[in-house]
Amino acid sequence: MKSLTEYLIFEVKTRRAFVNITNGIRNLVTKSNVQEGLCLVNDMHITASVFINDNEGGLLHDYEKWLERLAPHEPTDQYDHNKTGEDNADAHLKRQVMGREVVVAITNGELDFGPWEEIFYDEFDGKRPKRVLVKIIGE
Q1: In terms of pTM, does the model score above 0.85?
Q2: What is d(CA 42, CA 100) in angstroms, rounded to the nearest whole number?
Q3: What domains, with CATH codes, occur in the chain?
């Protein structure tokens, strides 16, 4: 069995951002030489997310509005977590909704996506470095 482990580092300049990481993950699948297997993409921070969806600007904007309605950043004093000196309780809640990781099958050396699927890193509390684990296993 072959395996590859890589860590991607993201440091977005804004509090919130969507980053399409599909091409970077494809490059790692190629580097791994795995033809049949699985690719795990796992956010390693509790205020960011990894998810799969369509790379369509309107949809990403809809996500932004929807998440802000579910867990608005302000007023920050609405959250008990923020009484610890943090101001990112909303980021923790948004991450819970969007998820921690994705797993994509590798078939014939390629990510085996459905139509329009791409992988995104979603930052909810940016302006500092965060890691994403990519683990590829297979034959």
Answers
A1: yes
A2: 6
A3: 2-138 (2.60.120.460)
